[in-house]
Amino acid sequence: MTTSSKKIVIPGGGGFIGRHLTRYFADKGWEVVVLSRRRNERQEGARFVWWDGANLDAWVDELDGSDAVINLAGRTVNCRYNKKNRRQIYESRQSSTEVIGEAIADCAAPPSVWFNASSATVYRHSLDRAMDEATGDIDLVEPGKPRDKWEFSVDVVNRWEAALFDAPTPDTRRIAMRLSMVFGSGKGGVYEAFRNIARFGLAGTQGPGNQYVSWLHVVDFLRMIDWCIENENLEGTINMCSPKPIPNREFLKALR
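The chain above was modelled as a monomer; its predicted structure follows.
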């Protein structure tokens, strides 16, 4: 198969990470299809197809014969954690993952690999050792932190990943991307939010300042995706973050 004949489908790919993925794979000669709930969304290098993130529809045909699927769908967590928003955070992630699993299961030629967004917030905050995929501590009480806050984040990830790995897709590799914050240029990214905080003079040390900030540059993220596609033995949960997190006070000092 030549590079020009490859196809990638990106559900929820209209945001910061999705736009970078589109440019990256379009430049490599791939056909890029973005599944979006916004009917008039456009980006050079991609073909946009409407979906609602919950129901099977015409979009399922795009998955049949594709090489890779990268699901980024989910309501932003940059919001107040009230009851309504929490419900939408849960439902948008779980329903989109479940319906993609249904679609792949029905494909005559299913994609080789299915990446699904997840989050590194599933791990406890640690000052004593690294939290890796094999030995990271999950579902542990974090002293001094409100139980409903950390418990919610862990539960979101557990449900999200369960929807991925419970899907009946035996011919498709599945990778849960336990993402840290992804930094890079462009509108809508987390760096833009932090930069605005700094501009208003609000980027002082948060709390004790020794809590670690896990991060990843978007270029390294794109290379990780490429590496995972090429290495066909890779599946399961993968931490996508830099190997050296930095303390909050150092991060915010650099930001200022």
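The domain at 3-182+216-243 is CATH 3.40.50.720 (Rossmann fold).
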